[in-house]
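Quick one, T. Sequence first:
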Amino acid sequence: MGIKQFTFTILILAIAFNGFAQDDEGWEQLFNGKDFTGFKQLNGEAEYKVENGEMVGISKLNTPNSFMATEKTYSDFILEVEVKVHPLLNSGIQIRSLSTPEYRDGRVHGYQVEIDPSERAYSGGIYDEARRGWLYNLGRNQKGRTAFKQGEWNKYHIECIGNTIRTWINGIQCANLIDDMTAEGFIAFQVHGIGREEQAGTTVRWKNIRIKTKDLAASSWENQPHAEVVNLIPNTISPEEKRAGWRLLWDGKTSDGWRSAKSDKFPEKGWEMTDGVLTVLESGGGESENGGDIVTIDKFSSFELQVDFKITEGANSGIKYFVDPELNKGSGSAIGLEFQVLDDKEHPDAKMGVNGNRTVGSLYDLITAENLSIPGARNKGFAGVGNWNHARIVVKGNHVEHWLNNNLVVTFDRNSQMFRALVAYSKYKKWENFGQIPEGHILLQDHGNTVHFRSVKIREF
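Structure tokens:
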């Protein structure tokens, strides 16, 4: 090796070392690798021990979820940790979490970064422990589902900065969440409760646990395009969403951009807008008999629509698209393709139609909603009556998808022979070329039951 080449090599190594050293600046060890100084165990009675510098959690039958929690609380931080878990044991890393006497007698609750070695493969997703359930599953992030390596050490990189929570596993981004429910809390390492003998004594291990609380920009990672942002702050468009072409279809305050399906004005009764929620009011369960359906003034062809909805017990409603208000000037609802909004347990419509094709998330009266994101899933991920659920409708040309709480539940081609055959045996058979018009309005349905909507947003392709 010549002098010039040697000098160049030394220079490159120096630059690399300095970059690494700079990234190491400001980090603190969260766990000392010797004992649990600075931690306390909460809730369950699973065993925790220190072994070879690792924090080891050991599952135990018939005890609730257990948490080894920091005594300190943290607001904005970047956390890095390596994880290895038995394939039969679920686990998680609590962040900005709480345990207070007034909330379920001290039950740990708050954001959890998932450790999921199951076939579902939601590791790196964000779950709201003992509170709202899934906030960011990986149903829409197939690349993220490949990040976790079974039976190996996996490096988690977790960023909580402001109202944004983002996660990576082995350098692959898994979650990109915007939420503002909890700004500060402890960090904890979970051993999930178990109920089967073969799970007893299985372990989850954590090592090289470090945290950074200052100068976070220097160690923050860039978003990867496969991890789409999920914004849970009602009726807002984040800068990232705006760059992707999103806009609010309902502004959260007024009727701007909307009208009655059967007139050029917004209904004078039957709908109300309060505290950022658009509500269709109870009127006895009749279809479009009170305020009536409302539709967008604009028409849409290829688009992605997102709507949060919350139903009351026994309620029925729907989100329609490719609506032509001229097709039905008589009684009843305007005609279009429909993402069904329904209480499947209490409303009789769930048992009508064919094989459940009138249940929540379904293409109403045509295609039954089922969880297509997770093979063999027992349910489609409905969050329940009285909770906010998320509807997503994606239309690209003739290809259409329904998503319920970020699980794909329906997919079809509206110009296919199969689609036309389904229409021919449905209640829509009398409407010529049903569902195949090139563009149409978007509709929120008045079916005479109280249903709430918010965060109605759209982007066009």
